[in-house]
Design goal:
The structure is a single chain. It is elongated and about 65 Å long. The longest helix is centred in the first third of the chain and has 19 residues. The chain folds into 3 domains: about 70 residues, no CATH class; about 45 residues; about 60 residues. The termini are far apart. It is mostly helical and about 200 residues long. The model has no long low-confidence stretch (mean pLDDT about 90).
Length: about 200
């Protein structure tokens, strides 16, 4: 509370009543969401359905009518090309791979966003066309990002070996891939492995 006894602006924002779920308000919310985030159709549907649920609790609107509006909006956005699960899956898979995600983690992440298995398979196949060894490339990227193995100071490498291996294992990489990355002598050796020379 401020000195006048009123709540802070943040408190007022949290307490503000949700908008009534109408076709216009849901369409505007969907467009605003898509301006900020890439999304699969199912993920956008979940976001909008949460708005419908809040509206039903606060305004007494019919959740079934709201769900029907959400389905119509998602279908319209798919027809207009604003939502394309295949494009989303491919872009998200590339982004996660660059950050060092294993194919197992990419698959799990896309499933969590509601992407169908066949779209995930095609996204991973497209990714494999661009990269010779997906798992190795992702493990090397993660090692670089997290400063593991040859990216670690030489004096710390041996004492952190098991921890580094465990980090790659938790990220979904096989023991063989993790061992190859962590036991590489230098960063140049990792680069040689990626280019097929090592």
């Amino acid at each position: 509370m401020d000195k006048s006894g009123r709540g802070s602006e943040g408190d007022e924002r949290r307490r503000r009543a949700p908008r009534k779920a109408t076709e216009t308000s849901l369409t505007n919310a969907a467009l605003f969401y898509l301006q900020r985030f890439a999304s699969s159709s199912e993920n956008l549907r979940r976001v909008l359905l949460r708005r419908v649920a809040r509206s039903a609790r606060h305004h007494g609107t019919d959740p079934a009518e709201g769900a029907a509006l959400v389905d119509a909006i998602v279908a319209r956005f798919e027809q207009n090309g604003l939502l394309d699960d295949q494009t989303y899956a491919e872009a998200r898979a590339r982004s996660l791979h660059r950050r060092g995600a294993s194919t197992r983690m990419i698959r799990a992440g896309l499933r969590q966003k509601g992407v169908a298995d066949d779209a995930i398979d095609r996204a991973l196949a497209a990714l494999a066309e661009d990269t010779e060894d997906l798992e190795l490339a992702a493990a090397v990227a993660l090692a670089r990002r997290r400063r593991l193995g040859p990216h670690r100071a030489a004096a710390q490498r041996e004492s952190h070996r098991e921890r580094d291996l465990a980090t790659l294992a938790r990220a979904g990489f096989s023991y063989d891939i993790a061992r190859r990355v962590i036991e590489a002598e230098t960063v140049a050796d990792l680069d040689a492995m990626l280019s097929g020379e090592g």
